[in-house]
Amino acid sequence: MVRLITHNLLACHAKGCTSNNFPLQFKDVAIEIREAEFNPDFLRGFLARLEWGALVDAARQLGDTSLPPEVPDMLDDDFLKSLHHVLLEIHVEEGAMICPNCQHVYAISNGIPNMLLAEHEIG
Amino acid sequence: MTQRYLFVFAQVHEEFRIPELLSIAELNGIEITFPCPLGELDLARPFMVLGLENDEAARLLARRCILIKSICEFYARGRTYAEVHEENRKNASKWEQYIENTTFKFDVSAYNHSIPQRRQRDIVESFSYMALLGKIEMKDPQVTFVCLEEYIDKHGTTRHKHEGDGKCREIFFGRLIEEGSARSLVKKFDVKKRSYYGNTSMEAEISLLMANQTLASPGKLIYDPFIGTGSMAYTTAHFGAWVFGSDIDGRQMRGKDPPYGVRAGAKRLGRKKPLSVPASRPVQPRPDDQPYVPPTKPYELSALATDLVVLARYMLKPGGRLVFFLPTVTEEYEEVDIHTMLCEGMEVVANSLQNFGSWGRRLITIKKTTTSRFPAPVFEPQGGSEENNAENGHVPAHKDFRTKYFQGFKKDVT
Ligand SMILES: C[S@@+](CC[C@H](N)C(=O)[O-])C[C@H]1O[C@@H](n2cnc3c(N)ncnc32)[C@H](O)[C@@H]1O
Ligand SMILES: [Zn+2]
To answer: Looking at the record's lineage, which domain of life comes first (chain A) (predicted)?
Structure first.
C-alpha cells in the first residue's frame, strides 16, 4: 500500500542516481481514504524518522494542505490528527512515482508500487 | 518484592522459550528473576520456578507467550510427596486465605507419564491437611490447585501406560494464576485456514514466535523486506503493529500464482551470467500489459545476512530489533558465524535453533544498541559482505547454504 508513511521512506535507486533522488513525485494518481486507528504515541515516536519537507510536499500533491511547513513545537491533538490522516489514511491506489533526478517511473497498481529496476538500470 | 511462580511450558521449541519470555517481559516492562545464570537453565525440563513482581505480571506473560501453557503461584517442590508437603506447610501463609468460603479443585497431572485415576485421588487426599472448607467445584472454581509430576523422557521406548508410576524426577505444587491463552492463536493462524496463502507461508507457531521476538505492539512499525504471502504481516498486525513489506517477486503479494517452493533461496536483481552485450535500451512494455519482471540471480546467504544487518541499522530506531531465520548446517555451525554478520551498534540478543537433523534454522534477534545515525547503505551488486568476512578471517558455515543443502551436506564436495 502506498501510504505517505511508505512514500517517505522511498528513494530512487537506479544506477548512478544518488543525489536529488528523493522524494519521488506523484503522477496521475487515484487515491482512496481508509480510516485507521489513531495512535498518538506512534506518531510522536515516528516524527523523528520523517523527512518533514518531503511529507508536506507529498500531501500537497495529493490535495491535502493540513500540515504546517515546519514541525510545530507543541504537538497538540489537532496537529497529531492531521499527521495521522496524512501518514496513514491516504492510500495511493493507482498512478506512478517519478524520480526528480533521472525521471525513472515507478508504477503503482492495486496499491502496490513496483520499485524493481530493469537490467540496464541496476548499479 | 518478588514472588516465586511456577511456569509450565509447552513441549516444543525448547530453545525459543527463554528468548520469548524475555521479549514479552521487555515489551511489558516486567522483571524476571532467574534461579541461575541463563546459560545454566535446563531447557529440557518443562517446569521452571521464576521470580516476578506480582500476579499481574504473570497474567501478561501467559496471555502473550506462545510457549507458556500456564503460570501458577509456587507453593512447593520436592523429590517425594513428603518433601512437597513439608514445604507446602511452611508456605501456609500463601494459601490460608482460601481455606474458608472458596470453591476449589485440584488438577493432578504428569509430564511424560499418565497417572492412574486411583493414585490421582490418593494424591489429592494427601493434601487434606490443608483443611479446605470450601465446596469442590470442577467447573469454574475460584481457585485451582495444581500438582505436577515430572518424569524423565523415555525417548521413544514403548512401555505400558502407567509403567514406572510414582517414580518421578520431581513434583511441583501451586495455585493456578493464568492459563496460557496465546497458544490458541496457533490454531487461529493455521495457514490452512487462511483464505489466501502461498507456498512460502511459515507454520503458524513459528511465525507467532517470530512476531513476539519483534515486540510487535500498537505504535510499532514493522518492515518485512521479503514479505512473500505475508504470514509475518498477519501475526505482527494481530498484535497491533503497523506492517509494510516488499518483495522481489510481486506475483505473490498480488495474489497471482506463487511461482516457486519453500526452498527457493533469496534472489537479487541481475543475471547469473552477464549478457555479452549490455542491455542498454529500456525494455518495451510487453503487449499483454504484464509488468516487466527483471531477471534475478541467487543472493548468497552470508552476503544477504550482512546486508540485512546494515540495512536494519539504518532503518531501525534505537532499541529496535531485526528478527530473521538463518538456515545453518548443524555439524558446521559455530557461534562465531553469527558474529561475522554484525556491525558496530548491532548486537545479538537471542539465537534459537529449530533442529531438523543435518540442518536447522536459527531464529536470530539482533538489537540496535546505538543511538547514532548512519547513512543509507549502498549495496554492491556482487554482495557487500566480502570486506567484512575478510576482516576477521572467519567464513561462516551458512555461506553458500543453498548449495550445501542441495548437495545433502556432503563434506568434501569440490
Ligand atoms: C520465505 S518467503 C517469505 C515469507 C514471508 N516473510 C512470510 O512471512 O510469509 C521469501 C520471499 O522472499 C522473496 N525474495 C527473495 N529475494 C528477495 C529480495 N532480494 N528482495 C525482496 N524479496 C526477496 C521471495 O520472492 C519470497 O516471496
Ligand atoms: Zn533516479
So the answer is: Eukaryota
